[in-house]
Amino acid sequence: MAWQKLTTSSSLGSETEFNTDNYTSNKFQQIMMHSLSAPGGYDKVGFNNNTNTVYAQRTSVDGLADATSVSRPFNDVNVSDATTPVFVVMYLINITGEEKLAIGFQIQQLTAGATTAPQRIEMAWKFVPSPDADVTSVDYYNSGSNNYVADSNITVIGTD
Question: Which residues, in sequence order, are CB contacts of 94 under 8 Å at separation 6+?
Fold first, then answer.
């Protein structure tokens, strides 16, 4: 089982959304997103430019009680208004004819320095497009009106 880089995309610093190019579908995908500093608003992730209400999510912040969101037009990657760097690692199972399931982990810097612990967010998602479609692109949105910082990044690796 060899993993290969499927795609990468970086923000130019002049947009509130940036996306990957379309890539060849793999059954197993690891998606890494790094926002150098979110511009205000919530970071969100979607697949295949699909903004229909085909996403559901469960989230826990710093180990507290779960929160759920269903029939969403995209996933809330970040449950707080991030103004500091955010790093997300997501694992996605992408089998044709099945719901696409993902788990993810996020760390947010919060206050700079070793005297403040970072924020930890654990997430689980479902992507249920109709008709069924394999995940072949990743979209990163911000609900605010400011632009992403240049060099914020999405990288996807995969294997079958």
Answer: 25, 26, 27, 28, 29, 100, 134, 135, 158
